[in-house]
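Tutorial handout. Part one gives the primary structure; part two gives the three-dimensional structure as tokens.
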Amino acid sequence: MHWQAVIAFPKMKIGVVTRDGFVAGIRYLPLAAASQDPENALAERAVRQLERYREDPDAKFDLPLLIEGSEFQRRVWDAMCAIPRGRTLTYGEMARKLGGMDHEAARAVGQACGDNRLPVVIPCHRVVGADGIGGFGH
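Part two.
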């Protein structure tokens, strides 16, 4: 994967991908990943907003996002964005919120969380397994 920027974050690095005027991806990377200065103005803007969030988790993002996914995934991702900072929902609670009532619905929510290409900005870390953090590494 070619990153347009890579910055340090607590316990990891974060890579930023831009495409056609949109932030197309944000990935958690190992600490050993090489840092990289932003290659373009949008990557610079994304880095500044990620740094602001790193310092103030109440900071809001204002980035043009390329959000590619199914209708269900988009519903899950929208619902994630509505979870207040400091709060979490389990996969099952999120599934019920979206109208699903069974184990398969919770698994589908977990899969959508793992398929989120814009973590931090779309806060998939606010949806967790009933017995722990869940599939964070997907």
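Part three, for discussion. Helices lie at 41-55, 71-81, 91-97, 103-114. Residues 41-55 form the longest helix (15 residues).
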